[in-house]
Here is the input.
Amino acid sequence: MISQELNDQMTRIGPATQAGGVLRHYWQPAALIDELAHGDKVPVNLLGERLVLLRDAQDTLTLATRVAAQGEPAVHYPAAADIEIDTNGPTYPVVEMKGVVFAYLGPGRPPDFPNFDCFRAPDSHVFAFKGLWECNWLQALEIGIDPAHASFLHRFLEDENPDDSYGKQFRDKAEGANMPITQLLREYPRPDIEVDETSYGLKITALRHLESDLTHVRITNQIFPQAICIPMSREMIITQWHVPVDDENCYWFTLFTSFDSPVDKDLMRAQRLKEHVLPTYAPRKNKSNDYHYDPQEQATLTYTGMGLDINVHDQWAVEGMGPIQDRTQEHLGRSDKAIIRYRRLLRGAIAAVEAGRRADLPMQNRTTTAITGPLSNDAIADRQNWQDVCHQMDIARRAACSWDATL
Here is the structure.
């Protein structure tokens, strides 16, 4: 457990806050480029600030401050005709990367983008989407760096045909173990977890030891300050940012990156728009309708009884903690290694910003463009040789890639 003071320090993100000061030293996803399809003004609520994304006749993008109505709710998005620019407010630099408009709200020169796979891949192999969660950004991030939760929260009691796995996480075969990933996660729920600090944040390795001296290796990553990179299947990875709207709401922005074939953007967009309401990208399943909980489904098909979309499972879990999780009553255990390490990183970054030591922050020096990857995959390996096997599988995947994914 931690003190209320420390919980506030890590979760509050307004302009004068400590965690907000750290986040403002990094490019933040502000909007999807799709949101400009129906006009050249898009309201943006980001890091506690009311902003508007503007596009001029030359397709130049600008993020300006807008006038917020008295008592305007944090997740309110006014119509374009009602938006009034605050000419006395700041404007911020923006750049479009793979369907996401990133904004820099911090001091000085913005940092370079790392050479991650999601940014290196051609546009044809990357799809971007977002969704609203009604909770603080930190609890949204922390579920993504907990490798053990998948065996419980995302437990499927029946296993679908892995050949029908497009766009579905965990709907894949565990090659070498003769079982689908859903069965493996269900039958081996207590992984050994290793956490290593990297140039970009944390590398998180979950080892589930199987029969015949085999091990399932799942490597995921925390990209500082508030992103994750995880495998969706052998061919596709997910890079996801958890972006504060304010202290009590956040968006997840996801780049789906394919090493194999081009992504079917129309299909992926249609799949997700069935589950979200525009223009806010709020999920149709939410606390107001009990996330479509079905007790019969819970008895026979899924742990949550809330359908097959694991985003809904995560949403229910993090929103159920309240707008800001009360960490003064928590008791972290062995499976929370990555969460513990991340909080240390965040507290160290807060101290560095307050001391004026920007160069001590991850990915803030001029060698950031040399950072590649990161490695994110699932593999079945010999228990004694899992590191080499996992590395070789990644090399083989990259060698067969239709775009230059070499490291």
Summary: The longest helix spans residues 337-354. The first strand starts at residue 28 and ends at 32. The domain at 27-108 is CATH 2.102.10.10 (Rieske Iron-sulfur Protein).
